[in-house]
Amino acid sequence: MHHWFRLKLDPARIVLGLKNIQLITEYLIASLVPSPLDTIASAANMEAADAEPSLQRLRDSFGRAITDLRISVTDRCNYKCVYCRAGEEGASFTELPIADYLRMVRILVSLGIEKVRLTGGEPLLRSGLVEMVAELARIRTAFRADGTRLDAHEPGQPLDIALTTNGHLLESLAAPLAAAGLSRVTVSMDAVDPDTFARITRVPRSFQRVMAGVNAAQAAGLGPVKINCVLLRGFNDNQIESFAEFSRRQGVVVRFIEFMPLEEPSAAADARNWKPETVVTMDEIVTRLNAWRPSCGVPAGLVELPQRAASETARRFTFADGVGEIGIVAPVSRPFCGHCSRLRITSDGALRTCLFSQSDHDLYAEMRRGGTDHELASYIRRVVLRKEARHHIGEPGFEKPSRNMVHIGG
């Protein structure tokens, strides 16, 4: 954050010596640093990161415990959604061998990661994904619930392994993934009307394929299946009540997500580039659903559900009869950065400390240079100490991140 101040000096009474000029200059330089990236980690913290990389749970300089990892296993996608892969860039980054992703995960679990979400691109395009899930299912956590490290003889808990997918290939893969150890699945689905859905994905008959995948995931025991819907004003915001009914009828958790500035730039007629007025906010969604009556026997009005963890991103609601669940993720109108527990790895092996980071940290380059697990753990700790306090969407001077969403991993 920029800090500005005004000095009121009387030239007749104050003479600045060289020492004073030096002190004021140093203050100005320190005050005008635009972000905490290069200044928040003290020398003592850096030395601790190098000295004992596995004894303490991974935390950033703000004290936030890092327990959630999102890892993109491919930059490829078989959809071209109008708010995401809006342009013609296509896949831009390489994929690593599955073994290299697994090594990264094991090191991060030794530092305190407990949840792993596989993303893309579209992760179901990646060969070897079922085998990767089976390997992840063998890994055990390294810390107790109170944040202290487990003793050598104490068994850890299985990882919470999740997957975010567009669902197009899920029908045939849901059962194998569940058998391999996948805990749960989230399907990106931005309309329950087939025609609107096809306009969003730019793939004919995609709705039927995705619904078959949702049904297969439920049959395989990957429920409750979560459905992520990004709302865009004037495009699919007429689907809010239909999604509420879908949640009740289908037995899924619907999560509405505010549109974020993460799309590929595009001049295409059907592309939806981010503007503040395109965002459908949490307050608007709650107002709409509070006025919606599920059925003649159920009164209108949402019932808020209790938060399960401080780092939970969605505010959760149900209806008066307890049937159906709606979550609302509001990073634009209600940022939740203060409790962020996430770290991301891109398909080419770069660490990202925030979805809106302006830079990557090349973990894979450290691996290629022959870094040991101890050295890589120290590197990760140093990177996490530079994790941003928050994003700055909608503020003056906001800059989009260095990669678009599809190249980061959802």
Please describe the topology of this protein.
Elements: H1 18-31, H2 43-51, E1 68-72, H3 98-110, E2 115-119, H4 129-136, E3 160-165, H5 170-180, E4 184-188, H6 194-201, H7 206-219, E5 226-231, H8 240-250, E6 253-258, H9 282-290, E7 302-304, E8 314-319, E9 325-329, E10 342-345, E11 350-352, E12 361-362, H10 363-368, H11 373-384, H12 405-408
Parallel strand pairs: 1-2, 1-10, 2-3, 3-4, 4-5, 5-6, 6-9
Antiparallel strand pairs: 7-8, 8-9, 10-11, 11-12
Helix pairs in contact: 2-11, 3-4, 4-5, 5-7
Beta-strand proportion: 5-15%
Roughly what is the average pLDDT, rounded to an integer? 82
Describe the global form.
globular
Spatial arrangement of strands, main beta sheet: 7-8-9-6-5-4-3-2-1-10-11-12
**Separation, N- and C-terminal Cα atoms:** 27 Å
Counted up, domains total: 1
Q: Supply the CATH architecture.
A: Alpha-Beta Barrel
Helical content, roughly? 25-40%
Number of strands: 12
> Class by helix and strand content?
alpha/beta
Low-confidence stretches: 1-44
Query: Helical element count?
Result: 12
CATH topology: TIM Barrel
